[in-house]
Design a protein that fits this description.
The protein is an alpha/beta fold and about 210 residues long. About 55% of the residues lie in helices and about 15% in strands. The protein is flat, with a radius of gyration of 22 Å.
C-alpha cells in the first residue's frame, strides 16, 4: 500500500472534470496520483456518498480537494477512514450542523442564470428551462474545453508509459527479464503509447467537428 496520498479533486455544481484540467495536468507532471470523480448534483448527501464510495475504493491515503460546492461535498465525504486531509479551493466549508442553504443565505444570489439568458418557468412540480442555441463563440469555448480534456488524457498516458518503462528497468536490474526482453517490451510499450495518443487525437478531432457543426 502506498503511503503517498492520492489526490482526489472534487469539482463544483454544474461543472465537470475539465474545470480541474490545468491543476490535474500540473499534478500529474509532478508525479502525483490524481483522480477526478463526477459530481451528479443530486443532493449534498447523495453526492457526498458517491464521492465517499469512490474514495474508499482507492488503496492508500487520500487527500480530498474541493472547489465551490465541491467543498461542501468533501466536508461530508471526508469522514472516510483513508482521508488524511481536506483542501478547500474557494470552496464551501460548512460548520458542524450547518446546511448548505444556511451558508448560501449569507451571500447575494448569483447572476449566473441571468447572464446565461435562461428564463425558467414552472408548471406544478415541473420546471421548464429552454436552453438557447450555441453561438459560434460558445462553440469555440467548448472546443477549448475538449482540447484540455485531450491534453490531460495524453499526460496520463505518458505517465503510464513512464511507470511501465521504470518497472521494466527494475525487472532487468533484478534479473527477472533479459536485456533483449527489456528492449522488446520497451518497444511494445512505446507502440501502445503512440496508438493511445493517436486515438485521443482522433476522438478530439471528431468531437471538435461535432461541436462546430450547426
Amino acid at each position: 500500500m502506498s503511503t503517498t496520498p492520492t489526490i482526489v479533486l472534487v469539482h463544483g455544481a454544474f461543472a465537470d472534470a475539465a474545470s480541474w484540467a490545468p491543476v490535474t495536468s500540473l499534478l500529474l507532471e509532478q508525479g502525483h496520483a490524481v483522480r477526478v470523480p463526477p459530481v451528479y448534483n443530486r443532493s449534498l448527501s447523495a453526492d457526498a456518498a458517491s464521492v465517499r464510495a469512490f474514495v474508499e475504493q482507492i488503496d492508500g491515503p487520500v487527500l480530498l480537494a474541493g472547489h465551490s460546492y465541491g467543498g461542501a461535498v468533501i466536508t461530508v465525504a471526508g469522514v472516510a477512514e483513508n482521508v488524511v486531509g481536506l483542501v478547500y479551493v474557494a470552496g464551501y466549508a460548512l460548520d458542524e450542523g450547518e446546511s448548505l442553504g444556511q451558508l448560501q443565505g449569507g451571500f447575494p444570489d448569483s447572476d449566473l442564470a441571468a447572464n446565461l439568458g435562461l428564463t425558467p418557468s414552472s408548471e406544478g412540480q415541473v420546471i421548464h428551462l429552454r436552453i438557447p442555441e450555441l453561438n459560434e463563440e460558445r462553440r469555440k469555448e467548448l472546443v477549448k474545453v475538449a482540447h484540455k480534456y485531450a491534453e490531460t488524457a495524453k499526460v496520463a498516458v505518458r505517465h503510464v508509459r513512464r511507470d511501465g518503462m521504470d518497472a521494466l528497468k527494475k525487472m532487468e536490474k533484478d534479473h527477472q527479464i533479459s536485456q533483449d526482453d527489456h528492449k522488446r517490451m520497451d518497444t511494445e510499450v512505446q507502440k501502445t503509447t503512440d496508438q493511445a495518443i493517436l486515438d485521443i487525437d482522433h476522438l478530439l478531432s471528431a468531437k471538435e467537428k461535432e461541436i462546430m457543426t450547426v
